[in-house]
Every structure is written in structure tokens, then in C-alpha cells.
Amino acid sequence: MKNLTTIGRILFALPFAVFGLNHFLMVDFFTGMLNSFIPGTSFTIILTGIALIAASISIIFKKYIKLSCILLAFLLFIFIVTIHIPQLFDPEKKLLAFMSLLKDVTIMGGALMIAGIYQKGENEPGIL
Hints:
By secondary structure, the chain is mainly α. It is about 75% helix and about 0% strand.
């Protein structure tokens, strides 16, 4: 069971490193997704990339997992509120926005589950 938890934790974390790298490599693409009310678009995108990479590293190496997963869930909530929900009102982006919203809600749930499993200061899951 421990091996399954380890594999699942790493598989959960790896895509966030890739997403974070994409924030550095595709700044212009992500700038087009942001609404006009979000300040410092390029800076915000780079900062988000750093946060995603940091969360990935934290989860993989089991350092501050609970905090990282809670902050990751909060970041995903911000994505939902500031990017996906406003795009639901654009007829051309509506379907993709809805799918992205569902994806981020699902990932947010996974992050909160991992945060609940790993207690503060523990390197091993608490419920398995």
C-alpha cells in the first residue's frame, strides 16, 4: 500500500512541474488567458510558474506536503474564479472553460485529500 501512495503522490506532483515550466516558456499564451483586471500579467504568470514548480518539488520530496497542497488548492481555486468562470460567459471559450473548470476542481480535490492524509511534520501518510 505504501508503494501505491508513493507512486500516486509522485504522479500527482510531476504534471505541476511541467505546468510550471510552461508558464516560463509560454508567457504570451498565458497572458491571453488572463483577464484585464489581473495586474502585472507577465509577472503573475512567472510567479505562478514558480509556485507550481515549488509545489511539485515539495510533494515529490515530502517536505511541507500539507502546506503545499493547501496552497496549491487555493491557487487552483483562484484559477477557477479568475480564469474559468469568466470564460464561461464567452460563447467561443465556453466548452473549453467548462472542461478546464472541472479539471481544476478535480485536481483541487486531490490536493486537499493529500493535505488531509499527510499531517504536519509527518513524512508518512496518516490514514494508510
